[in-house]
TrEMBL record:
GO CC aspect terms: exocytic vesicle; plasma membrane
Subcellular location per the Swiss-Prot or TrEMBL entry: Cell membrane
Major site of localization recorded for this protein: membrane
Protein name per Swiss-Prot or TrEMBL: Synaptotagmin-like protein 2
Highest taxon listed in the record's lineage: Eukaryota
Keyword tags: Cell membrane, Exocytosis, Membrane, Repeat
Residue ranges of domain C2 in the record: 51-173, 188-317
GO molecular function: neurexin family protein binding
Ubl conjugation listed as a keyword: no
Family annotation (InterPro entries): C2_dom, C2_domain_sf, SYTL1-5_C2B
An annotated GO BP: exocytosis
Lineage per the UniProt record: Eukaryota, Metazoa, Chordata, Craniata, Vertebrata
Length: 347
């Protein structure tokens, strides 16, 4: 949520317990260890100061150059971050939601030692008008910290579908506190229809299976974010954290030009001891496939959501109440398919 990010990988073999877990999939086969995804750790302070003040800006769309333009004029009466020195060093940042990673952020320059900064800068996005109209503009004001711990000063969100595009004048808007939906990542990203099953070792006969198995049946996903007029080319990645081996991740085929893709894809991870279910987490993420890069659409994490994995504190053990209940039901009903319809989130 801020301007500095670092990536860390959490390797399964850091633990003393290292079960030998493999995986295979209904339309591809591989034998490898359980895998996990890279985590992004963001630095930013959302709660140290109260949002206050106003921001003046104007919006325009340049039809000739197919460019969305945000004219950021100035701010007034912003919160003071460093009370001892009576100063704030503010700048303005914008995203196009829901997929802020796709279009990226834009920023103004930093104005030092002022709560009434004047910018007169234009932030630009190359984007088709049809695509722009299914976005929201998030404009936020931040205090720039030299050490990277930037402080949130307020924001405003504009629904571009209902914006009056004949209004090209500069207007003042009240800055608001961080919304609960933004903090919790509760923006609607679609829902995943799936079933899961745990098969304990030896439960189907002597040494059958030789080790425990987690079966994941990805049926379909509904109401995905439509990033372009033709829809999305969606596929699902699956990892079992905490292992981050790239060789072991599984994925479905790509379903093209469909915001309600049907996958009907089954993945099986073996090598599970029953006690591993308390410390492992199945992460399923949905992506839009493009030639140069894939864009994240949303995901779920199935686990107990304790924040711990084999006694180590981890960010990814963060399952919601729905996800935890789904996992617990699987743990308590061996050899039975458990059905679920879970909302995707921003992870």
């Amino acid at each position: 949520e801020s301007d500095t990010a670092s990536e860390i990988s959490f390797q399964f073999n850091k633990h003393k317990k290292t079960p030998s877990i493999g995986s295979h999939s209904s339309d591809m086969a591989s034998v490898s260890s359980v895998s996990g995804s890279v985590l992004s750790v963001y630095s930013g302070d959302f709660g140290s100061v109260d949002a206050q003040g106003t921001v003046e800006f104007a919006l325009d769309y340049d039809e000739k150059n197919r460019e969305f333009q945000i004219h950021v004029s100035q701010c007034k009466d912003l919160a003071v971050v460093d009370e001892k020195k009576g100063r704030s060093d503010p700048y303005v940042k914008t995203y196009l939601l829901p997929d802020k990673a796709r279009m990226g952020k834009r920023k103004t320059s930093v104005k030092k030692r002022t709560v009434n900064p004047i910018y007169n800068e234009v932030l630009r996005y190359k984007i088709e008008k049809m695509v722009l109209l299914i976005q929201k503009l998030n404009l936020s004001v931040w205090h720039n910290d030299p050490l990277g711990r930037n402080s949130f000063l307020g924001e405003i969100e504009v629904d571009l579908a209902s914006w009056d595009w004949s209004n090209r004048k500069l207007n003042w808007y009240m800055l608001k506190p961080r919304s609960l939906s933004a903090i919790n990542g509760a923006d609607h990203r679609g829902v995943m229809n799936l079933s899961i099953k745990y098969v304990p070792p030896g439960s189907l006969g002597p040494k059958n299976p030789p080790s425990g198995e987690v079966h994941i049946w990805v049926k379909d996903v509904k109401d995905l974010l439509q990033l372009r007029p033709s829809g999305v080319d969606a596929f699902v990645k699956c990892y079992v954290l905490p292992d981050t081996s790239k060789k072991s991740y599984q994925k479905t085929r790509v379903i093209k030009r469909d915001t309600n893709p049907v996958f009907n894809h089954t993945i099986v991870y073996d090598g599970f001891h029953t006690e591993d279910l308390k410390d492992a987490c199945v992460e399923l993420t949905v992506w839009d496939h493009e030639k140069l890069t894939n864009h994240f659409l949303g995901g779920i994490r199935l686990g107990l959501g304790t924040g711990l994995s084999y006694g180590i504190s981890v960010d990814w053990m963060d399952s919601t109440q729905e996800e935890v209940a789904f996992w617990q039901e699987m743990m308590s009903a061996a050899n039975e398919w458990i059905d679920g319809l879970l909302p995707l989130r921003s992870l």
